[in-house]
From TrEMBL:
InterPro entries reported for this sequence: G_TR_CS, P-loop_NTPase, Small_GTP-bd, T_Tr_GTP-bd_dom
Record PROSITE patterns: G_TR_1, G_TR_2
Keywords in alphabetical order: Elongation factor, GTP-binding, Nucleotide-binding, Protein biosynthesis
A GO molecular function held by the record: translation elongation factor activity
Name of the molecule in the record: Elongation factor G
Amino acid sequence: MAGQQTKKKAAMVMTVTKDRDVPMEKIRNIGIIAHIDAGKTTTTERILFETGKTYKLGSVDEGTTVTDWMEQERERGITIVSAAITTFWDLQTGSAIENGHYRVNIIDTPGHIDFTAEVERSLRVLDGAVMVFDGRTGVESQSETVWRQADRYHVPRICVLNKLNLIGADFEGSIKSIHERLGANAAPIQLPI
């Protein structure tokens, strides 16, 4: 029995050590930032699923997401504290491989105005961010706040228009709001069908 425990401990140490053996230039910290209810945590869940980190999509409504781990977050359906989770991506094969080409730390941040300081703490360590917008509303008040915070820390961003499948979605209006309210030169690289 004691020998089995030792083997398990050694295996756990090897796993941790493998993750730490990734050279710094191969590590990327990517934040998911947005106004509350734009779909940050759902976007995070999709990334984790598509990279093979999870085998089932979690749901904010069902309280089954990976990054909303606090009971209060699950009850309220909002992110309160930033949560980081690691996945891997190989640029050469375009696939998720454990210890692949890049180690990607995904940081899911809160969107509620009460937790703006939590977002700002996360922005300090980001290499880039995915700025999520609700396709029905485009830029909202907290979107502007988070955008300015990202400007302050010189964080490059890619914008994602979420919820374009819902009634009231306005792709062109959302793009226009990014141009007008954020002063960003948003150029669509993928169009909704």
